[in-house]
Amino acid sequence: MLARWRRDHPNVRLVIHELSDHDIYAELIARRIDVALVPSFAPWPRIVMEPLYRERMVAAVPKEHVLAARDVLRWPDLRDETIYVQEWPQSHAMREFYASMIGIGVPFQAQPAGKQTVFSLVAAGFGVTLAQQSQAEVSFPGVVFRVVDEPNAQVEFSLAWPREAEGALIGRFLTSMRAGASEARVVV
């Protein structure tokens, strides 16, 4: 997801876009964005990645699904489920990240759309998906979130910026973001 202030409009506003990891990397290298908050599992050349916080992962399952009756889930519980993954052409980082935790042979279903669309597919009973704990704090009709009780069921987020752009401004921004993450206690 990319948040960008629009300065070309009389009423400055925040515009939010969901981009693939390749698009975020291209925006950073082209210096069209200064800093991005990204999952840490995709190392990029020429980009500095500073870990900021970790979040527990949860499974989003249809409200009427048999797994919805359980309080916690384990990876074996999900291995036979169709798991929807946000994925864009030539961008398979998320699927590879999930496979590294759940295992090989899981029936992943790529969906080149935002997380809200993926949650809609889950609500309709087409499969399940993985999400971060913070996403589970917002209710979504027809979807229940269940904690995945596994040691590796977490995702780390980093601030990312081009190596050439390092300077005092990014340093101050990083300090501010660390303080905010610490206050929110989002590290698991």
Overview of the molecule:
The chain is of the alpha/beta class. The protein folds into two domains: 2-53 and 156-184, D-Maltodextrin-Binding Protein, domain 2 (3-Layer(aba) Sandwich), CATH 3.40.190.10; 54-148, Periplasmic binding protein-like II (D-Maltodextrin-Binding Protein, domain 2, 3-Layer(aba) Sandwich), CATH 3.40.190.10. It is built from six helices and ten strands; from the N terminus they run ββαβββαβαβαβαββα. It has helices at residues 21-29, 75-78, 93-102, 115-123, 133-136, 168-184, and strands at 2-6, 13-17, 36-39, 47-62, 72-73, 83-86, 108-111, 128-132, 143-148, 154-162. Strands 3, 4, 5, 6, 7, 8, 9 and 10 form an eight-stranded mixed β-sheet that branches. Strands 1-2 form a two-stranded antiparallel sheet.
Q: How much β-strand is present in the residues?
A: 25-35%
Global shape:
globular
Task: Provide the CATH architecture of the largest domain.
Answer: 3-Layer(aba) Sandwich
The CATH topology of the largest domain: D-Maltodextrin-Binding Protein, domain 2
The CATH top-level class label of the largest domain: Alpha Beta
Distance between the termini: 22 Å
Please identify the structural class as seen in this structure. alpha/beta
Q: In terms of quaternary structure, what is this?
A: single chain
Number of helices: 6
What is the N-to-C succession of helices and strands?
EEHEEEHEHEHEHEEH
Quickly count the domains.
Answer: 2
What is the averaged pLDDT score?
84
Strand element count: 10
